[in-house]
Design goal:
InterPro entries: Trm13, TRM13/UPF0224_CHHC_Znf_dom, Znf_CCCH-type_TRM13. Belongs to the methyltransferase TRM13 family. Keywords: Metal-binding, Methyltransferase, S-adenosyl-L-methionine, Transferase, tRNA processing, Zinc, Zinc-finger. It comes from Ailuropoda melanoleuca (Giant panda). By secondary structure, the protein is largely without helices or strands. Among the domains are: 13-51, no CATH class; 55-82, no CATH class. The protein is 6% helix and 9% strand. It contains 1 helix and 4 strands; from the N terminus they run ββββα. The protein has one helix at 72-78, and strands at residues 22-23, 28-29, 56-58, 66-68. The strands form 2 sheets. Strands 1-2 form a two-stranded antiparallel sheet. The longest helix is centred in the last third of the chain and has 7 residues, at 72-78. The radius of gyration is 26 Å and the shape is elongated. 5% of the residues are buried.
Length: 109
């Protein structure tokens, strides 16, 4: 049988329009698409700190994602993890039952 030709080494440069972050564990570059004029995808934007003066911090409402420090006030207004206002008809623990079953109120709604 003929020996197959070795696959070309694709870790020298990232593909055009792809993230420039080198994933050491996978021994290749990240394959996510980048925005126009950027080198890194959103996931690896933290790796671009040296070329970007803006600092990213953890969201105080949900530390599972990060935001730019200068846009924190704007983010807190629209973050999906913020406490949303309850509707007027909402009553906390309305169907929870009686807290003390020995005291039965005379008027039940």
């Amino acid at each position: 049988m003929a020996a197959s030709a070795p696959a070309p080494h694709t870790t020298e440069f990232p593909a055009e329009g792809r993230c420039s972050y080198y994933v050491e564990k996978k021994k290749r570059f990240c394959r996510m698409v980048v925005a126009a004029g950027k080198r890194f995808c959103g996931e690896h934007a933290g790796a671009a700190e040296e070329e970007n003066a803006r600092k990213r911090i953890l969201c105080p409402l949900d530390p599972k994602h990060t935001v730019y420090e200068d846009q924190l006030a704007k983010h807190l207004k629209k973050c999906n993890s913020r406490e949303k206002p309850k509707p007027d008809f909402f009553i906390q623990d309305i169907n929870a039952g009686l807290k003390d079953e020995t005291e039965i109120p005379e008027q039940l709604v």
